[in-house]
Design a protein that fits this description.
The chain is of the alpha+beta class and 818 residues long. Helix content is 45%, strand content 14%.
């Protein structure tokens, strides 16, 4: 890339890249942009920090990671051929399968090296490949951190500090010539272990038990414990250096010997190709779309039913946040689902901004105003809102019921449920499903295997002392949740979901709309005080019917049951008996059964006969006999009633409790206002103040767009120019950039005026308003009023500087490049 000599450092290698390559690095590792580096040197330094390298390694696929691991145990620097030999082996144990694997490795290895080089984990030409030092430290073997390859230290590393006498004993036992130079002794032993013929002859003389010991150590871990008096096979290996001491009780198989036993391979099973996603079943695509559409409609209905049940105010919030186990069980019973599925619907509604806390002193959950807007949308648009929310949400409902790192239970709607990896796993699972033919349901195990290959270091997560594969768990939850939500149907990705991923919400809603059943404007009333809705109902009808009757069963058809309590609920909401009769007659395809008419009339006749108001509370009734009956009833003792007048009783409890108590006794009292009017209790009036949905927690910095990348690359290039340009001192001699230039005010003014006239660039020292000093390369354009306007090569933009803040100015050397 324009370099005549190989780079000596990572900074030099990055400096030699073109702008597109630098942009690719920043796109692959966006953490390097926070903040934008001043120059290439700072970029290289940041790219070598431990946190950044760990993050970059976590985003490698398995073969790219295996390539990096092989470089970590190779000599530094390593030729490409040496790396390839570690990946393919030396060919001594090749068979047909090994030949095929070697061909795949040789095809995939250039791409893996290119990936590592693009992400600045590897630099240098192919004859001198270097793994960045931090990555080598992370992947290289040590007693505290065994190598992922299972290889131990080299002979030189394992014998460091060993006495010359002991080295001589090992050389003699191995049949090597004696030497008094420890370096030569180590080199001689290393040469033996890397010579296949001589190493084969040595192992031919080994006892069978000694070869069994080597077999247990060869693929790792390479360390073993020995007693003060080791067995003869171990002693034979230790005497010949095939086991070298690490401590008084620990020995290690040196890397060179292990590679001989492995036929030169760094990994037992290299994986150059991603595992294929296997089809478990193939279904009719139309059947898949229909099943997914039916489930999508059920998902919308379930969320609506959930929030409708909390219209008057939901359950209280725990002091630590979230929903209690008792309330979760209660809502699961209302929805007729299991508790984990109820937790999923709760979390989805919360993430979609349809549910939140009301913010009152006695804090409770309730629907938000956004819920009312959502219910006005067509079913397909409501589903698209839920699906897009689920795709991007970091809250993970599958964790509910588990424990956090401190052993505390994780509750629904509570804290500690965000997992930043969830959106990426969901998108990846759906992308793999979309790669299959329409109607194809994948085998879950093959999906998990593919995910582990793509991000082998990303799965491990410690929770309550247990290490689990978090990405695999999220993937399995994703498969279950996508089926619940109607993203998939019968295990396969639906057409509307493919459109949601590829074309956006509008296209997905358009494909789903024809598959959603049309809402009905009627029900079928039956003589057993039930009404059957043979399909989805129009919203006004559904809202009124949900107040007038209780849902008894759901499915293809919904069964509503009329009870005295449900009819009273409708009367409390302001309906009269005549209104209810007219409503049923208008919306029933069957005649209104006589028992239902009698039920409505009977409840209406008694409704409001008793009046409850605030005294603290009182009961008023024109019929003295009714009040006498109440006072004589033993169940009224807890209400603490006393007669004030022939038609009025007073109570020492609040009106709401008095209402509830009399209703439990079988009466139908009505609340009244201070003016004596009946209070109408309308359903659906409890709403939280406007709330914004919880923001997903991003997984690291966001990937920058092209505009930001271009600006960042220009800024880094300009800063690098300013940092590396050669300046000319006031005496005319050339010097590299160091301390800020110092000149008098008159000299500064004269130099920048001359530069503005000639159009040349100069080097200035500048102190900003906060007192921070910096050096810049500028091309003055105009000097007037105590300010200089110039093109700043460092910032890559035109700026204006006060002359009194310029510490000094110097011309650039004649051969400087700006």
């Amino acid at each position: 890339m324009g370099m005549t000599t190989p780079p000596r450092t990572l900074a030099e290698a990055l400096r030699a890249r073109d702008d597109e390559s630098l942009a690719g690095l920043l796109r692959a590792r966006p953490d390097l942009l926070s903040p934008v580096p001043n120059d290439i040197t700072q970029l290289a330094t940041r790219a070598g920090t431990r946190a950044s390298v760990v993050r970059a390694l976590e985003h490698l696929d398995r073969f790219a990671l295996q390539t990096a691991e092989a470089l970590a145990v190779a000599p530094d620097p390593a030729p490409y051929d040496t790396l390839l030999a570690l990946l393919t082996g030396d060919g001594q144990d090749d068979g047909t399968a090994r030949d095929d694997a070697g061909t795949a490795i040789r095809s995939a290895a250039p791409g893996a090296v290119a990936t590592l080089r693009e992400q600045a984990l590897v630099w240098g030409e192919n004859d001198r490949l270097r793994l960045v030092r931090t990555a080598r430290e992370l992947l290289a073997p040590s007693p505290q951190h065994p190598s992922p390859t299972g290889l131990g230290p080299t002979v030189a590393e394992a014998t460091a500090g060993m006495s010359p006498g002991r080295l001589q004993e090992i050389l003699a036992a191995a049949g090597l010539p004696a030497t008094h130079d420890p370096v030569s002794a180590v080199a001689s032993l290393s040469a033996l272990f890397t010579d296949r013929s001589r190493m084969g002859e040595l192992l031919d003389t080994a006892p069978v038990e000694a070869l069994s010991v080597l077999d247990r150590l060869v693929w790792g871990p390479p360390y073993g414990e020995v007693t003060p008096n080791p067995t003869p096979p171990v002693k034979w290996l230790r005497d010949r250096g095939l086991l070298l001491p690490v401590s008084t009780r620990t020995v290690v198989l040196p890397r060179e010997a292990a590679l001989h036993l492995r036929a030169g391979r760094a990994h037992r099973v290299p994986e150059p190709l991603p595992p294929a996603v296997v089809a478990a079943a193939t279904r009719d695509p139309q059947a898949v779309d229909s099943a997914a559409a039916g489930q999508a409609f059920l998902a919308v209905s379930t969320v609506e039913e959930l929030l409708t049940s909390w219209n008057g105010g939901g359950p209280p919030i725990l002091r630590a946040g979230g929903l209690s186990v008792r309330e979760l069980k209660r809502i699961a019973a209302v929805l007729d689902v299991s508790e984990p599925i109820a937790a999923f619907w709760l979390e989805l509604a919360y993430a979609a901004g349809l549910l939140a806390s009301d913010g009152e002193a006695d804090e409770r959950y309730a629907p938000t105003p956004a819920y009312d807007d959502w219910t006005e949308l067509p079913v397909q648009d409501r589903w698209v809102h839920l699906a897009t929310t689920w795709l991007t949400a970091t809250r993970t409902a599958g964790l509910v019921g588990g424990q956090d790192a401190k052993g505390r239970a994780l509750s629904a709607l509570g804290p500690e449920l965000d997992r930043s990896a969830a959106p990426e796993v969901r998108h990846r699972i759906l992308a793999l499903l979309a790669s299959l033919d329409p109607g194809t349901a994948p085998d879950p195990e093959s999906l998990l295997a593919r995910l582990r290959w793509e991000r082998p270091l990303r799965g491990a997560s410690t929770s309550a002392g247990n290490t689990t594969d978090l990405r695999s768990r999220i993937a399995l939850w994703t498969l279950n949740e996508s089926e619940l939500l109607g993203i998939t149907g019968r295990g396969a990705l639906s057409s509307q979901s493919r459109a949601l991923i590829d074309s956006g919400p509008a296209k997905a809603a358009a494909l789903l709309a024809p598959l959603i059943p049309e809402p009905l404007d009627h029900v079928l009333l039956q003589a057993d005080l039930t009404a059957v809705a043979p399909g989805p109902l129009e919203r006004p009808l559904a809202d009124t019917l949900s107040v007038l009757a209780d849902i008894e069963s759901k499915g293809g058809a919904t069964v509503y049951r009329f009870t005295p309590g449900s009819v009273r609920r409708a009367l409390d909401a302001g309906q009269s008996a005549a209104d209810l009769h007219a409503f049923l007659a208008a919306h029933s395809r069957t005649p209104v059964p006589q028992p239902l008419s009698y039920l409505i009339d009977d409840v209406a006749r008694r409704h409001g006969h008793l009046r409850i108001g605030a005294a603290s509370a009182y009961v008023r009734c024109d019929d003295e006999a009714v009040l006498n009956e109440i006072l004589a009833d033993r169940r009224s003792a807890t209400l603490r009633l006393r007669r004030l007048a022939p038609t009025a009783l007073a109570a020492q409890i609040d009106p709401a409790s008095l209402l509830e108590g009399l209703r439990e006794m079988g009466y139908a009292p009505a609340a009244e206002s201070a003016e004596g009017d009946v209070l109408i209790t309308r359903a659906g009036i409890r709403r939280t103040p406007p709330r914004t949905p919880p923001a997903p927690i991003p997984e690291g910095p966001p990937v920058p767009d092209g505009t930001l990348l271009g600006a960042a690359v220009r800024a880094i290039r300009a800063g690098d120019t300013a940092a590396t340009v050669v300046h000319k001192e006031t005496d005319g001699t050339a010097a590299t950039a160091g301390s800020l230039p110092r000149t008098t005010s008159a000299e500064t003014l004269a130099t920048v005026q001359a530069a503005a006239m000639t159009g040349s660039a100069v080097w200035i020292g500048y102190v900003n308003a906060e007192g921070a000093a910096s050096q810049r390369v500028i091309a003055p354009v105009r000097v007037e009023g105590g300010f200089v306007t110039a093109y700043d090569h460092t910032a890559d933009e035109v700026r204006t500087y006060p002359l009194h803040r310029i510490t000094g100015v110097a011309e650039l050397a004649d051969d400087a490049t700006t």
